[in-house]
Amino acid sequence: MFYFTSDEHYGHKKIIEYCNRPYSNIEEMDNALIENFNSVVSPKDITVHAGDFCWLNNKQNVYETYVKKLNGSHIFLVGSHDHWQPDSAKFVWSSTIDKQFVIVCHYCFRTWERSHYNSWQLFGHSHGRLTVDAKQYDIGVDNNNYFPVSFDQIKVIMANKPDNPNYVKKEINE
Predict the structure, then answer these.
(1) Which of 7, 14, 49, 157 has the fewest CB atoms within 10 Å, i.e. is most exposed?
(2) Average pLDDT of the segment spanning 114-138
(3) Superfamily of domain 2-159
(4) Which residues, 6 or more positions from 107, have their beta carbon under 8 angstroms from its beta carbon?
């Protein structure tokens, strides 16, 4: 099973104030996010983290402090605050899951790869403050009650969204 999340901001004290998160300190926030994550993600699952994972700058500290406490395998994309990632880290991840093309990036796009075929774009960065009318969804924790979102949940969300503005409907007689 695939899960998606973004903008956890582990170790970032100011994010509690900036996003009005319901935590009194970093330790409470970090522990709640880890507990929420592990309550839905199993050791066999894969999670795509779409940037702003944590506030630390040292890769070893990030793994010791956070990653090793989280269930499953992880794909980390670069966001605005991911200075712990190597220069070779990716900004975009894409895959076909259950015959659905999905593209993930920290930032919301106006158009994206295969958007004209109604592909889905998952993003973060906006902390639930951006409205989109297309096959797009904010996977950030602030938009999802501080939990990662499963591919199955995304399918339900996308079923209720309008087609992408640039969607090209194929003619029956093509």
Answers:
(1) 14
(2) 96
(3) Metallo-dependent phosphatases (3.60.21.10)
(4) 123, 124, 125
Query: Which residue, among 10, 7, 74, 68, has the nearest Cα to 47 in the 3D structure?
Result: 74
* Closest to 166 in 3D by CA, of 114, 99, 124: 114
3-state secondary structure of 134: coil
Query: What is the DSSP secondary-structure string of 78-113?
Result: --SS-TTS-TT--SEEEEEETTEEEEEESS--SS-T
pLDDT in tens, 87-103: 899 999 999 999 999 99
Residues 6+ positions from 46 with CB-CB distance below 8 Å: 1, 2, 3, 72, 73, 74, 75
- Quick one: pLDDT at residue 29? 98
Residue 40, phi then psi, degrees to nearest 5: -120, -30
